Amino acid sequence: MKKICCFLRGVNVKGTSMKMADLKTAFEKMGFTDISTIQASGNVIFDTPDNLGKEELKQAIEKHLSSYFQYDANVFLREKGEIEELLSTGKTLTVPGDYHLYSLICDNKEILEELKALFTETPHEPLEDYIVTETDAFWTVPKGSTLSSEFGSKVLGKKRYKSYLTSRNINTIEKIYKTLNE
């Protein structure tokens, strides 16, 4: 068995509402075990057999959740080591005291590069930053400006990127990592 974290896109925002207890039940009905939810933003940790491929797993979860909750589910899967690497990289970044650090979790390197170009050409605060890593990206943004920033408004709420990425505050990633290690 291996531990996986499933990040759901768009949970409990813009009319897509679900209780974490219901989300846990949905994962139980798929046959997963040792299930935990972290916060109300659609983060699920579960055990799955080692022999299931990530893409196969992703497609099965999206299909089941779309049917179960009657919405277009988009999920992003990360194994324990990937979460550890994400958190470790995030901790090396300098974040001004009045800024948040977000991880942009994405399964498409080309989209990360596209977003880098978009960030560069979009007006942003002097200390706002976008950093691409091997697998994901990080974005620093002034507190309270996540969706109102030029970059955030062009990326986070747009359908164009719906199936490509989701975002989480680094504090959420840290909570997920702690849960994975309990």
From TrEMBL:
Domain of life: Bacteria
Any Pfam family matching the protein: DUF1697
Coiled coil (UniProt feature): none
PANTHER family: BLL4334 PROTEIN (PTHR36439), DUF1697 DOMAIN-CONTAINING PROTEIN (PTHR36439:SF1)
UniProt-recorded name of the protein: DUF1697 domain-containing protein
Protein's organism: Anaerocolumna chitinilytica
